[in-house]
Amino acid sequence: MECIIKNGGLVDATVLVPQLDFQESHFTPLLFAIELKCLPSVKVLLRSGASVNVKVNSNGRTVLFTAVQTNTFKIVKEVLDYKPDITEFDNKQSLPLAVSGNGEISRLIVNSLLDYGLVIDATFIHDMNFIFEAVTNGHISIVGQLLERGANVNSKDSNDNSILYRAVEQDNLKMVEEILKYKPDVNEKSSIESFTIAVSGDGDHSKRIVESLLEYGFSINSERLQDKTFIFNAVKKNHVSMVGHLLSRGMDVNIKDHLGYSILYTAVRHKNLNMVQEILKYKPDIQDTSNIQSLTMGVSAYAKSLQLIVENLLEYGFPITSKNKQNEKFMLDTIRNHHLKVMDLLIKSGANVNAEIQGKCLLEVGFSSRYHYHTDMAKLLIENGAQVKNELLKKAAENWKPDFVELFLQHGADPNFADENGKTVLHYIVNNTNISYDAKMISIAISLLKFGAKIDTQTKQGNTVLHVVCGKKGYFEEDVEFLCKHGARVDIKNESGKTALHLVIESGNIATVRTLLSHGANIHSRDNEGRTPLHIACLLWITEKIRFLIEHGANVDCKDNNGGSAIQVSLRADGRLANSTGNLYNTMSETDCNTFDLMLNCSSNNIQDLIKTTELLMSKQQSSNYNRSRMRCTLVKHVSKLRELGFHDDEDDIQFQRMFKQLTNTIDQRELTTFVSRCSVEVQIMKVESIGDTKISYYDFLRKTCHRVALCLKNKSFCTGLELSQFKTSFPSYATMVENKFKQGQMRLNLLKEVNLKRQYLFPELTFDCVQELLEYLDIEDFHTLVRVFPADRNVSVVENPTSPIATDKEDILDISTLAL
Questions:
Q1: Residue 584 reports pLDDT greater than 70
Q2: I need a surface site. Which of 314, 421, 497, 551 has the fewest CB within 10 A?
Q3: What domains, with CATH codes, occur in the chain?
């Protein structure tokens, strides 16, 4: 636009513009820009000299009038900056035009016009529509100027309503206060009606308007004093000053609405404490039926205001009658909603504190979580003779009320109370939460234990509290830690012979397993079917737990009552690994293969066990079954590694050789041939490569029993050589086997040291060498049993005999002086 003007465009040229009504109007560029509300164009035109007083369109409206008509404050301000003529008629009419609009923008425009100098002349003063529009649209400054200049404060609109009535109707407190400055007639009918409008309104503004009207001097006439609706509206809307004014003028304080309710009852029902206090000043009748019901209404719900209302009613003199103490609902509401003073009066009037209501004693009725039952109410009942039954303790715990549990225990409840199934309160609380280390559960448990609850009490099914926690699905290691620290025994068995460790393998997580083991749980414990926790993990095929248990010393070779090892349990028809139709097991993952291989590497590789494992894998000839194919391949490779080491290569063992050949035929022969060749090369290297500074080769190491490996690990150089893990790159096919052998040896060595510390108690009549020879024949499970025989405080220091032939493997040690005994 600036470019057009610079090149000779006329800023005040008129053009004919067609309108929507098919009429044509003349516009200057400035008027057209204002019509379009294009502020940038308006600014450019005004800077370029466009006239603000031009009138060219058909209705003759000025630039200022048009700007106000658009209700665009910034354009109006821009036009006013260029000094339009305020004596021009249309410019003067901009003010009533602005006043006719509502909202903040209209008020800003009005104030700008007044600041510019537009005045309210006689025409405006006597224009009733003008002042009523100003009141309706909240233009307080306009109304003030009109009234200041002589406008009639009692003027009426076409509906015979005054401007005060209109202001109250708009709920405009500041407008009401402005009008009241100009002394409206307090006896004028429309002004009096303002009360009705104000009283029926909601919110703080309505209340303050009522107060302003009363302070100004508006009175209530005799007709209004007989209007029930008026005072009941005032009560419902909490217009305290209005109700006080009405009652002080003689309105009946016991007046009833069409339903027969008094204003006191209505105030209580609306929980208006200040209103109740105001009404009580005017002495309502305490014998009035509706007023008496006010007390019942106050007791029937829970709120801080109702607590205070009930106290005010009692202080005023409303009595607790025989009907109250015989009214079950009144008694229930009194307890549930914590009206202590009411209950105290009920007790003093002879109420039975051991009465049963709806099959519950008074101490029990408030336990539901939706009620606001507090211990001070229970204390009041107990102090006045209420009996604390053991069943109450259980219900308080079930409803997560730690304060009540503590209170009932203090007053004689049995912390070891059990139901017909032998479940104690402790059993219930740990079973009823799905939140780990729930604060309320812990608080209740601490109270029970403090008062003597037995933490190892068993149900009829033999379950302790620890069994219950460990049998839940989720992460409850903190709960287990809490129970163990408070004396829970970890190896108690239920009627199925399961310990807490068995159950946590089925349902819990690794962290909980770790917690139990840290508190001495027996990793070899057997249930009634002879299954250890490892059997359970294998049956469910939870690889993470299988690996964890093995790493912590679980015996892979132990047999259940059916003679099955952990490996064989996983392959049985009821094992999840064997169930290839299950959706979770259609594909055997790398983790599954590695876990299966780990179990094979940690087993004793007894020929009979290998035969049984092979039979299970061959029991269903499903060569197309991908899972079985991968498991067979894993087993074949494992046996091939053993045979290269010189195990199970006896031609006399015809049964195993035949089965192994059948098993071998079910896998890829080229892959197997390559693998066996690689193993053969690695074994040849292992035979000549020693571990550390010792004479023991890796080949000899893998052929040793676990006990002999443990003895060798007393040599620092031997340990260091294995810890460097160079074998992982030198012998990749045997790396897992070497690593597992090393770990098993370390575990056995640690157990061997613990057993030796207790040797004189375990074997008091045997020599050191004899004991060492005897220990060589024990398996890992036997060692754990020996370690658990005596507590730690019975330990004694025993110096091993370094010259004993059993103390270490002499033939394999290069320098016996390096032994760490």
A1: no
A2: 421
A3: 220-319 (1.25.40.20), 759-818 (no CATH)
